[in-house]
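tool_call predict_complex ligand=magnesium ion
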Amino acid sequence: MNRILIENLSAIIVDLPTIRPHKLAMHTMQNQTLVILRLRCSDGIEGIGEATTIGGLAYGYESPESIKANIDAHLAPALLGMDADNLNVAMQKLDKIAKGNTFAKSAIESALLDAKGKRFGLPVSELLGGRVRDSLEVAWTLASGDTARDIAEAEQMLEARRHRIFKLKIGANPLEQDLKHVVAIKKALGERASVRVDVNQYWDESQAIRGFQVLGDNGIDLIEQPISRVNRSGQIRLNQRSPAPIMADESIESVEDAFSLAADGAASVFALKIAKNGGPRAVLRTAQIAEAAGIALYGGTMLEGSVGTLASAHAFLTLRQLTWDTELFGPLLLTEDIVTERPQYRDFHLHIPRTPGLGLTLDEERLARFRRH
Ligand code: MUC
Ligand code: MG
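tool_result ok
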């Protein structure tokens, strides 16, 4: 059999409008910027991937601009002429020439999987060993910054059977104000919804102790990343005393982080994000560490568009158990997309067809319209 080679990689920055401002503790999103990767192979097949973060450099160590610059200058040249079907060799080479850069590596690993799936007529989930489900339940983030508006948004989502799990972004306001906001939303939704919070590292340990008491007493199901990712001993202490499970998000910047968190007993749930681990295969290594340690799983997002969302979904479809479901709603935050057919959300779930690769086609006209020049 002829070897198929990697011929070209191109990273494209795309700025897309969003349905409303999305308020996180560290940044309010007024739009979303995606990095779309096109990887062309010698048989003419193109794989696509995505590396998307939140708020420039406000969330993580990579920005859309740094992701593109590092792909253009370092990662793409290293891959040219390599076997397009051998992901082990390709990704090991990237790990050798580039420390970190998990977002860029995730886009590349996704694009290699997409191309290989298209070539062999297999969905990415099947390249990853095979799916054990065809759909994933998806949470929605209430982050308008206004309690009444958030409640109205949640009611609409319940009525439309789109979401019944809600994550509230807190941490930006004074503690008592945030707690009042959360309790009011949980009271309004009652048993009809699971309500969770994401503090995005904004509390110190004393605020977390106070916050946990109120959240635990008021039926909040899950508390995500309450304190700084670097305060490991604080995370261990909080995990031992919290009345609700604690989920690690920012604390996991790599598969190795996942291992050391598990070894330290610093969280009982892991948010799985392909971008923070280096791709759909890499995130499954973190999932395996969690499974071995008895840590529950949640399918996380960096608010990617359709490409990154489907790349994540194909990996999550293969997991034995996703106790806390997923938050793969990124495409629903966008008013415009750059794929011809948008992902299908209905009955509280994202449904993933068994089409080859990721199952997506880029819309060239829209890509040309929204790409940054
Ligand atoms: C995060 O920190 O989890 C995921 C959903 C959302 O609204 O923000 C992201 C980032
Ligand atoms: Mg989070």
